[in-house]
Amino acid sequence: MRNFALVVAVALGLGGCGKEIGDACVTAADCDPNGERSCDISQKEGYCTIQGCDFSTCPDEAACIRFFTGGFSNKTCENSPDECSLDELCDLNKRCVARSSEVRFCMRTCSDDSDCRDGYECRDIAKMKAHGGEPVLAPGSTVDDSSPKFCASAPSTL
User: Fold this and answer.
1) What letter would DSSP give residue 140?
2) Per-residue pLDDT tens digits for 53-94
3) Is 87 in contact with 100 (CB distance < 8 Å)?
4) Per-residue pLDDT tens digits for 90-140
5) 98 exposed, middle or buried (CB, 10 Å; 0-12, 13-18, 19+)?
6) Residue 150: pLDDT over 90
7) DSSP 3-state of 39
8) Which of 37, 54, 155, 158 is deepest in the core (most CB within 10 A)?
9) Is 137 helix (H, G, I), strand (E, B) or coil?
10) What span, in angstroms and rounded, lies between the C-alpha atoms of 75 and 73?
11) In contact, 90 and 83? CB cutoff 8 Å
12) Residue 11's pLDDT is what?
């Protein structure tokens, strides 16, 4: 009887474990039965994530990444981020973007494409500029080659 109780306890304990950031999912319950993680179903085969993160709030396997949604002005900030208005930020492509268009997600960190699932790429600065996303770093830090790379859906090659 004790062995049966132990097996049940272990099975229940394993069932309560959530997936890691970047794992495939269909619903938020696939990522975390406690509801702390969500499933971004707009990504290929779903993507376990945490929304609304900051530079030091993601789990060890992840980094906080921001994306800018919507249309952008043609105003550049090539010389200084100060060229943007108070309600704008200077993105990696040196464009002023509305602060209100920023969305943040914890995303799996990587060294190269082999660290990511099939259909995903490891975004370095060049891929971030081409396909979007940039790490949220500590105040005063700037994104450079030592900044975290992250796994994101690779663009389709049709």
Assistant:
1) T
2) 999 999 999 999 999 987 667 789 988 888 999 999 999 999
3) yes
4) 999 999 999 999 999 999 999 999 999 999 999 999 999 999 999 999 998
5) middle
6) yes
7) strand
8) 37
9) coil
10) 5
11) yes
12) 38
| Dihedral pair phi/psi, residue 116, rounded to 5° | -105, 160
DSSP assignment of 53-117, as one string? --TT-S-TTEEEEEEE-S---S-B-SS-GGGS-TTEEE-TTSBEEEGGGEEEEEEEEESSGGGS-
| Alpha-carbon span 28 to 19, nearest angstrom | 10
Question: Alpha-carbon distance 65 to 54, whole Å?
Answer: 8
CA distance 107 to 121: 12
Distances (CA, A) of 10 to 14, 19, 30, 105: 6, 17, 19, 32
As a residue count, the chain comes to 158
Tokens (6 digits) for 121: 């790429």
